[in-house]
Amino acid sequence: MNFTILWFVLLFCGSISAQDDGTATETQLCHPDMCDLIKEFAAMKEKLGAVETRLEDSETRLKNSENQIQELRNNETTKVIFSAATGGGEKHIGPFNTDITLVYRKVITNIGNAYNQFTGIFVAPVAGVYQFSIFYHTGAGPKAMLKLFKNNQLIAMTHHLQPETSGNGGNAVFLQLQQGDQVYVQLAENTRIWGTDYHTTFSGLLVTQM
């Protein structure tokens, strides 16, 4: 609509007027008042362009802020914390003639349900940095040895090599995992640990999502 008005103004300003003395005529491009009006329209158009630019910048910043807020909300909603004990009553687990995956059946907490109490395997639900810890108790007799694996890769170990005495041990690591990576504990062949609801545990948590 602004362009239509400006067009009519230009047509009007292009009209021809004669001088009053009758001796000569001249073509005036526009009446002085109309010239002022055109200048005002031009200035207004320039200001509107600047306002539109600022609005576009503001919309871009607002969109970026909304994306950042949504990302923070997504990070906050992903919580992974678990802790489990071997359970099964007070008895030794092992020794066996081969390495076995240790199943921690007594779930203490399992926020996010990433730990499977039937397989003993933790599966990362999201990519990020996780912390894991293992602790055990063993009585006098065969030595004790636990191994922490990421997928099929040995990451950490803890052991007790003095069979004449009971002992305790543990280890802890930070791991960068991708979604679907598996973490689990194996009991080494020809070793044993004391299985109860309280002594031998496997724990982990999501430290930061990536």
TrEMBL record:
Which residues constitute the signal peptide according to the record? 1-18
Please indicate if the UniProt record lists Signal as a keyword. Answer: yes
- Coiled-coil annotated residue ranges, if any: 48-75
Where is the protein localized?
Secreted
Q: Which segments constitute the C1q domain?
A: 78-210
User: What cellular component GO annotations does this protein have?
Assistant: extracellular region
Q: Print the keywords alphabetically.
A: Coiled coil, Secreted, Signal
Top-level taxon: Eukaryota
- UniProt keyword Signal present: yes
Give the protein name, as stated in the record: C1q domain-containing protein
